[in-house]
Records
---
Amino acid sequence: MKMRSLLSLSIAALLSTPVLATTISGKVTDPAGNPVAGAEVKIEGTRRVAMTDENGVYRFEDVAQPHVHLHVFSPQFIHGDNDLGDIQGDQTVNFILSPASVENIVVTATALNSSVLESVTPVTVISADKLRKIEAPTLGETLKNTAGVHSTYFGPVSSSPIIRGNDGPRVKIVQNGLDVSDVSRVGPDHNVASSTASATQIEVLRGPATLQYGSGAIGGVVNIVDKRIPQYHVDGVEGEAEVSYSTVNEGKYTRGGVTGGSGNIVWHLDGYYRDTENADIPGYASVDPD
């Protein structure tokens, strides 16, 4: 069995409009006044995201939206929001975040980008660290041990998720919120086109939250989140790579991803390669071997 290398290249030009543009800046701290570094500040309704530095400071240049709503996310704190409304002139907006008792993970598949703590709908979020440990060649096999999720196993290279007994066209597969639209929803002998090799997290939605994706998602929604659509400016180059080998089937797996940027240009490149042979088992596969 072989799965050919897949390579994707995405280039995003983040252009700003200097006309009537303003600057929004501020500081994110905890109740004790300590800066919260690495918090994500987003202008809702846009793809503009700023990360706080070691002093908790963030900054948006050339904000052209007349109505601005800011959302602040940090895994160890309860999210913060501030609706500035129609703004004129530069703005300074500070946030004080309250600590969360458990890890607070944002769910991007919902329309409001709420967190797990804020969401009242059944949702499961698999983080990047856990995903690297349970990752399998197919999406169905990767998620089969998730609560309420099973797999339509149709061979080592073809497996789709079953959510609450629903599969096929009743379960929608999306990548970064966009429908994958492959033939895996038609028959179980087709693999899901989207790979988890470059995923930063996987979200599984159940219940009424799936209605926003239409009647084709009555069983549930699986959202694969990756870096192919850059969410924030990157100065310089960052990336990751992984190499693994399995002895049971002589499986070789290599993946890598690089994101870089300069000025208003951000680019991303990722790819993976997987090659396996037949799986070895002790003894014979039948009672009376040929």
---
Amino acid sequence: MKRPTVGIIGLGPVGSILAAHLAKGGVDVVVEDIAKELLVKIREDGLRVSGIRELAARFDKVVGSLAELAEFEPDIVFVATKACFLRIVLAELKSVYKAGMSVVSFQNGLDNERVAVETLGIDTAYRVVINYAGELVSSGSAKMNWFQPPNYVGALKSGRYTTDETTKYIAEIMTVSGLETEEAPDIKKHVWEKTILNSALCSVCALTGQTMKGAMEFGFSRDVAVKVLEEGLMVAEADGYDFGEDALDRFTGYLKKGGAHKPSMLVDVESRRRIEVDFLSGAIAGYGELYGVETPVNIVLTGLLKALENRYLKKKS
């Protein structure tokens, strides 16, 4: 039986950490990114992970386009770019997509898997909720800052959430490779939880420049973050996902444990890159409008972040 080939699109911190673990675990991996200097570095030296994990992996299959990726006929393709690039990636992937290819959103945000189904015109798409984080140290080198296992994987099949043989395989190869992952029959509950938590500090820190620890130690920014949580929990409940009476306290307690790290959206703002707010606070606000749940804090944060993004992107152009 042919060993499945796994493609990874996007070699930021999350994609690099995934690729290094899978390759080190013996998985046949093809990595893709559009950064030419990065690809040269990976071809020569592979990828290195530092921080809470120390490992290095080399790669024989390193490509700079999805057309090249498709030549290796990957069985499973992880889309590990920022969610704000998802539609662009899927539009390009559609031109090389072949029946039997399993597409996995390995990203933050709500409904990425539905976007994949709709864009590619397929019946099934997969989703992983990632419970690790890191940062790029240099070209070909990523630091893994924390991992709170497990990750979760599920499938959206014919409009319903479930698990299947592919989710089983993904959970197995990730776990064997050191990234403990469990199957989730209703992955959307885990997506909601991660989205609500991410929205609270990503949005606040991206606007204020605070670290996660700093935002939760300063009274006003902490209060804003808690309001994001509160609104998110109400919208999730309207969507059928009730996290319990003590959810706000639990979620707030989780945020208080955040270290002196910059969330990824703050890093993107500082680097003048596109941000994924539409898939986080913006998505919460969108669901709130759908269900008639008021989300004024998420609406304001989304609008301010999009204004900030628009200003610096216009300057770059």
---
Amino acid sequence: MGTITQRENGKWQVKIRRAGTKAISATFHTYEDAKAFERQQEHKVDKGVLGQLDGTPTLSQIITRYLTEVTPSKKGADSEEWRLKAIQRHWIGSTQVGKLTSTIVAKWRDERLQGADGRPVSGSTVNREMNLLHHVLETARKDWGIGTAVNPVSEVRRPKNNPSRDRRLTDEEKAVLLEACRDTRKPYLPQIVELALETAMRQGEIVSLMIEQVDLKDSVVSLKAGATKTDEARTVPLSTRANAILKEAIGDRTEGRVWPGLTSEAVKKAFIRARERAGIENVKFHDTRHDATTSFVELGLTDTEVMSITGHKTQSMMRRYTHLRAKDLAKKLG
């Protein structure tokens, strides 16, 4: 059905001809990409969809549509937007989706892992990006009739996820970090960081927090179903300090966002700058969640009690804290 020939300029040309359908021709830099494209077309014939999907839009154009029609309805819209825009800026964004093969996706994956732009990222980060790219292409393929019969991301090997982080700030590091947060034009930053350390709430949960969810009298925050990562409602008790932070942030307002107009991306950038000013290495905002959870365990709360506060769904998620339980048992044994 298909033929692959090398042109004088060194590139590889694929020609697909089948009775009753329009001939397809595409040119690639490598034989591997050309062969992958030929296989995709053969799959289309097997499924009876040859010629039905539009492969001419670039990945960047597809992402732009996805950002408009799909992303806004998601809880993590802010972080998803900057992830997708980063893909648009990469050379892969200019690739026509009809020519997007597993070989091309694998090259993009490897460049992200190795830091071709000078900033290597973890396997866990690349997996999240691949999951997102896969959904973008599936949406285009199934809902918009754009792309290839086979999602090329499905054919690419995934890197291993990094081990769970167990970074915990020392008391001195917390003091220095919070001082650096205060030394900024962003008055919300020290409030948000300290609230995270007190409650183990996720960054997105804090940023989207509504005044109506905060009960300062009973010292609780009610997170609604759909507003959390697990889509399950939970009630977070507030320490005296956490209560004071929210009271300060809310003031005399009675409705709306606790921090109006704030985005997760803004918090991320402000936190990174504060961390650099503090001279603290290897700390991410999400580490505040691990730090707070560890504190709950050290206070003697049961796993069930901790999970009800943090929103961890399974017992296996609490296993990383079992060494703290072991220390308590050792003390009891004498």
